[in-house]
Specification:
The chain has two domains: 246 residues, Bira Bifunctional Protein, Domain 2 (BirA Bifunctional Protein, domain 2); 88 residues, Rossmann fold, CATH 3.40.50.800. Helix content is 38%, strand content 20%. It is built from 16 helices and 16 strands. It starts with 13 loop residues before the first helix and ends with a helix.
């Protein structure tokens, strides 16, 4: 019998074992204190997708790498250096999705949505992943929600999406924003424009940053998007794409801004606005906070038309348009603009108890209150009434319920108005109904 040797186990140094574990670079915990903001945005977003007749879709987080290489573009920063990709046995190269529109387009093709009544209106919500340098407004895991309308070329679709965005920010209380709008034309007229753009920038090559020198050959449209100060000075005299739009693209854009004018939606025509993804055509737009200067991390949302994407991915020619809204960036602006939001975690009632029998009854009552949609706080581990009422006062509840041995024997419960200190005794079995009346009336009478 061959000798079996035990595998050597490498011992972990004590210093490493005692070291506390931290977050990966570019990732953050969403703490309980932040959850009210997330719920506030999610409820607003859901009211919009239902109100505008969108259907929710949840594409997977993991996709084939080729989906984004073909849709976003080989020469984009996302594909070249920002995707979390790895080889999966039997699946080939896969990635954590860096954005959702390509996944939506793939789902549209895979599930034969072209056979549905057009346009198909889809809404999504979830995390995205990009391996970029973490900074303010940029994390490696971030969250977006979006509205996509597939199957209609009419410029009113572009205007409707911009209108949805404008109404959304107004509803959540962010009125200090500016909507930047531009057209980048179609592949045909854009090709002619890019030749002019490259000719101009080559004459200014000495003034360009290293990234823009590479963009001259790889992705010239992104020259207009550079945030380097010297490149922005060069940009001021660069040819503008709106002057090179063909008749069809020009008419499309004029109709879009015409609809915005009729709807009284304020916007800024920004001839330098481009999107960092290759699939965009014609209308593009972003929403910026008014007090923040132009910059990639300042955009709260971005979108536009992508008429060639579905055909690029193997589907039939299908016009489409959409928008993605960055949740973390919106929350940052809600805080910066001191927008008051509902405190969803704020309890309305505190349930105090004294004694073992009261504790059991209080546990049963707590469940009844929860089912009645009454937000209730408690600390069943404490026996001191004084300590429990101090906690109720600290939380800021409107009423405290007090259940002691006497109340258990009598089948009653005390309700204390925490502001006035007035107490009343009610039938234990009527607790939920009585509280609902009080909370609805907003007083203790």
């Amino acid at each position: 019998m061959p000798k079996i040797t035990e595998p050597k186990v490498k011992k972990t140094p004590k210093s490493s074992m005692s070291k506390s574990l931290g977050l990966l670079r570019g990732f953050k915990d969403i703490l309980p204190a932040d959850q009210s903001y997330w719920r506030f945005i999610q409820e607003a977003a859901e009211s919009f997708y239902r109100g505008y007749g969108f259907a929710k879709i949840d594409p997977p987080i993991l996709e084939e790498a080729s989906l984004f290489v073909r849709s976003i573009g080989k020469q984009t920063d996302i594909v070249e250096k920002e995707m979390f990709s790895f080889a999966d046995q039997g699946q080939g190269l896969v990635v954590l999705r860096p954005e959702a529109t390509a996944s939506i387009a793939r789902a549209y093709i895979n599930h034969g949505m072209i056979n549905l009544p057009q346009p198909v209106k889809l809404f999504y919500w979830g995390p995205m992943f990009r391996r970029e340098r973490p900074q303010s407004g940029r994390q490696r895991q971030f969250h977006q929600f979006g509205f996509e309308i597939l199957g209609d070329p009419n410029p009113v679709i572009d205007a409707q999406i911009i209108g949805i965005v404008a109404s959304f920010f107004q509803q959540i209380g962010l009125d200090q924003i500016s909507i930047q709008v531009n057209s980048i034309g179609c592949p045909t007229c854009r090709k002619v424009y890019l030749q002019e753009l490259v000719t101009y920038y080559r004459s200014k090559r000495k003034s360009l940053c290293e990234d823009c020198k590479k963009r001259l050959t790889k992705n010239p449209l992104r020259l207009l998007d550079c945030k380097n100060q010297s490149c922005q000075l060069v940009r001021t005299e660069a040819p503008q794409i709106v002057d090179w739009l063909d008749e069809e693209c020009k008419n499309h854009f004029m109709k879009v801004v015409g609809y915005l004018d009729e709807l009284n939606i304020a916007y800024i025509l920004n001839p330098y606005l481009v999107r960092g993804l290759d699939y965009y055509t014609r209308t593009v737009f972003e929403v910026w906070p008014k007090e923040i200067k132009e910059g990639a991390q300042s955009a709260l949302c971005g979108g536009g038309r992508y008429d060639g994407l579905i055909e690029m991915l193997g589907g039939r020619p299908t016009p489409a348009a959409g928008v993605a809204i960055g949740i973390e960036r919106v929350i940052t602006q809600l805080r910066a603009q001191e927008v008051e939001i509902p405190n969803y975690s704020q309890a309305e009632i505190f349930l105090a108890q004294i004694g073992d029998q009261a504790k059991v009854k209080a546990l049963q009552l707590f469940e009844q209150l929860r089912r009645g949609n009454i937000r209730v706080a408690e600390n069943f581990a404490k026996d001191s009434l004084k300590a429990q009422l101090e906690l109720a006062n600290k939380i800021g509840v409107r009423y405290a319920l007090i259940l002691g041995q006497k109340e258990v024997m009598d089948g009653t419960i005390l309700i204390r108005d925490m502001e006035s200190g007035v107490q009343e005794i009610i039938d234990f079995n009527k607790t939920v109904n009585e509280l609902k009346k009080k909370l609805a009336n907003g007083n203790s009478n």
